[in-house]
Amino acid sequence: QVQLVESGGGLVQAGGSLRLSCAASGRTFSSYGMGWFRQASGKERVFVAAITWSGDSTNYADSVKGRFTISRDISKNTVYLQMNSLIPEDTAVYYCAADQKKTPGWGLSLPSLYDYWGQGTQVTVSS
Fold this sequence. Notes:
Layout: E1 4-7, E2 10-13, E3 18-24, E4 33-39, E5 45-51, E6 58-60, E7 68-73, E8 78-83, E9 92-99, E10 116-117, E11 121-126
Parallel strand pairs: 2-11
Antiparallel strand pairs: 1-3, 3-8, 4-5, 4-9, 5-6, 7-8, 9-10, 9-11
């Protein structure tokens, strides 16, 4: 069983930055593919960014490319989402997720693929 705990959300003005963290339990963190998703009020959960279990590949939704960066620290069992140049459309609850199947990077945009989810953290960007 893997537990994921997100943190770092909050209220920020447009143009600002936030860094989300997702701490994972378990001794096999280095074998997890990790993803970030977001869900705006009244909308479906959508892919934001992912990093493969090997750490050698990342992918991003077009809407965040060039603004968001996903990274991980294996020694801390933590994955991060650095969010820069935030816009009001980034407002959502952000969730991290873990995949234990060593899925290739191209597959990590599918929410149904993930095995574990965090509880989410709210990000609000004011105009």
